[in-house]
Write a structure and sequence with these properties.
Elements (H helix, E strand, L loop, with lengths): L20 H23 L9 H6 L6 H18 L11 H11 L2 H13 L5 E7 L5 E7 L14 E7 L6 H4 L3 H8 L5 H11 L1
Antiparallel strand pairs: 1-2, 1-3
Helix pairs in contact: 1-3, 4-5
């Protein structure tokens, strides 16, 4: 199957509280599109041509680096766009908020641990909040375009929140100040979507 670039659920300037419109447009139309194009090229006329993206991701350890990297890039970015919004929501509520408090001590403590995972990810990668197979919330990071759904992940689970800490995600506004980008990003998290993912994973 041929993969395609998904539309964003908002305008490029919608997340300006944290991410400028130029970065969003380049990130979506150039970087994400490149992952899609290279993924399609990598699976063309191969046994992977008819597999879903989830199937490819789950078996990352046994597929080519081109499929792993570009498939991961496509999955991660498609996920990333969906968990952000221009309508600031502040904080989670309901069962997710209760679970965060029980697991990490407080919402602020969870944010600090998540930010640390992103800040200490050497080079390019992602920070994640996941629900484990046992139903527990966990924070982790992955290099490059890997994610916790992959069989190669050190911490496996179902992502409910993920932050791109590649420099292309923030450099125009924040330059080398990754922690500033991560702190601002909380203002554009779509907690309704995150809570729906949490409920589905539980």
């Amino acid at each position: 199957m041929a993969f395609t670039l998904p539309d964003l659920p908002y305008d490029y300037n919608a997340l300006d509280a944290a991410i400028d419109a130029q970065t969003m447009e380049i990130h979506h139309t150039k970087h994400h599109q490149t992952y899609v194009t290279k993924l399609n090229d990598a699976i063309k006329d191969s046994p992977n041509a008819d597999k879903s993206l989830d199937e490819l991701i789950a078996n990352a350890g046994s597929i080519s680096p081109a499929v792993r990297n570009n498939g991961g890039g496509h999955w991660n970015h498609s996920f990333f766009w969906e968990i952000m919004t221009g309508d600031s929501m502040g904080a989670p509520s309901g069962a997710l908020a209760d679970d965060i408090k029980a697991t990490f001590g407080s919402f602020e403590d969870m944010k600090a641990q998540f930010n640390n995972a992103g800040a200490t990810q050497f080079g390019s990668g992602w920070a994640w909040l996941t629900v484990s197979a046992e139903g527990k919330l966990e924070i982790s990071s992955t290099p490059n375009q890997d994610n916790p759904l992959m069989d190669v992940a050190n911490v496996k689970g179902t992502p409910i929140l993920g932050l791109d800490v590649w420099e292309h995600a923030y450099y125009l506004r924040y330059q080398n100040r990754r922690p500033d980008y991560m702190q601002a990003w909380w203002d554009v998290v779509n907690w309704n979507k995150v809570e729906a993912l949490y409920n589905a994973a539980k």
